[in-house]
Amino acid sequence: MMLLKRTTGVGLLLALWCLLILTGCWSRVEINDRAFVTAMYIDRLEDGDYELSLGFPLPNRMGSRGGSSTGLGSGGGNPYTIVTKKAESIVIALRLIRSDLSREISWGHCRVIVVGRKMAESGVKSILEFVAREPNFHTKSYLMVAPKLAKDISNLTPVFERLPAEVLREFAKRRVTLDTSVKDFLESAATDGDTAAAMMTVGETEMLSEQGKKSKWVGTDGAAIFRKDKMIGTFDVKEMRAWLWLKGKMKNAMISLESPTDGKTVSFIILSSKASIHPMVKENKISFDIRIEAEDDIMASESNIDLTNPEQILLLQEMLSRQLKERIQKAIRKTQNMEADVFGFGRFLDWNYPQVWEKHEEHWLSTFKSVEFNVDAKVNVKRTGTEKNPIIRQFHR
User: Fold this and answer.
1) Do the strands 194-206 and 214-227 form a parallel or antiparallel pair, or are they unpaired?
2) What are the sequence ranges of the domains in the chain?
3) How confident is the model at residue 3 (pLDDT cuts 50, 70, 90)?
4) According to CATH, what is the number of the domain 238-397?
5) Quick one: pLDDT at residue 386?
6) What b-and-e string marks burial along 195-219, b requiring 16 or more CB atoms within 10 Å of the CB?
7) I need a labelling partner for 217 at 20 to 30 A (CA). Which of 3, 244, 307, 375 fits?
8) How far is CA 373 from the centre of its chain?
9) Which residues, other chains included, contact 37 with Cβ-Cβ below 8 Å and sequence gap of 6+?
């Protein structure tokens, strides 16, 4: 009986101790006291200072009316805002922004970082340093480059989305451009490697959704080529898409070519793609074998080509394969001439031939310039569509 009482007493003390330590988090910030950053825009000015702009949603303007969700609350106006400050460093600019806000900044919802061209050319090391040290910042946030100022991108008109950041994020998620993240840059920096990031384009046009007023639109362009942390050049759209091919990320995209019968356009949609890269070392000579495989469907045809003829389909497949091979080779040659291994071929050499890599690591970029690449592309047309005999052929009878 005495043992039972003693055991009960110990259990009661443990229960009381657990209640004492469950006093909550001393550093807790209520959700009503938070300002959620959705995008970060950074420019480098002519005087060397930084211009930092942060995008925030405005909860008081993101209500619903009439039972349906809308972008405007009872107060009217945009459901978001951009706050900008200039300073000699990113951290000081951030401190100035914080001093003007009635809420505490929260980084948990930031998924996009846009840097201006001058910032990219001067180096993004300071941005990577800040992000890597901020524990609440997602390293999977996309990093993109503006053609001029990053702040110009923040002024885009989000027609289909509520926030400008959501537009940029969807570009990367849908892979209509590169989905390079901060994590990719950090991994590249750890290996002294190179990478590429999405390049945006910006302009003004009259928008029906804005009562016909001229508004800023933002779209995707090519890609920015980075050697280590500095931008040294660009890819055009076709070369940017070669990057997607080599990474095996090309999907749900469209490609067109001229029909072999009459030169009219035949369009295809890419269903899937995969790429394999294998380094080869023979007699101290380094080469890479690259194989790209893809499956396409015919999306539309303005040609009188007979899509029911297997020979014509084989001819289209050969033309698609040749076009893809040429684009891949062109993009690789460009990176070789710029001495920027943005496709990460050095990593493949390190994984497969670590001893060879040790010999070339310090001067890899100069070695990379003379490396031979053997590209093999194979595109299969999986389906020709439900219309086996194109309507346009009926008008040629």
Assistant:
1) antiparallel
2) 32-60+75-235, 238-397
3) very low
4) 3.30.300.210
5) 55
6) bbbbbbebeeeeeeeeeeeebbbbe
7) 244
8) 26
9) 54, 55, 56, 105, 106, 107, 109, 110
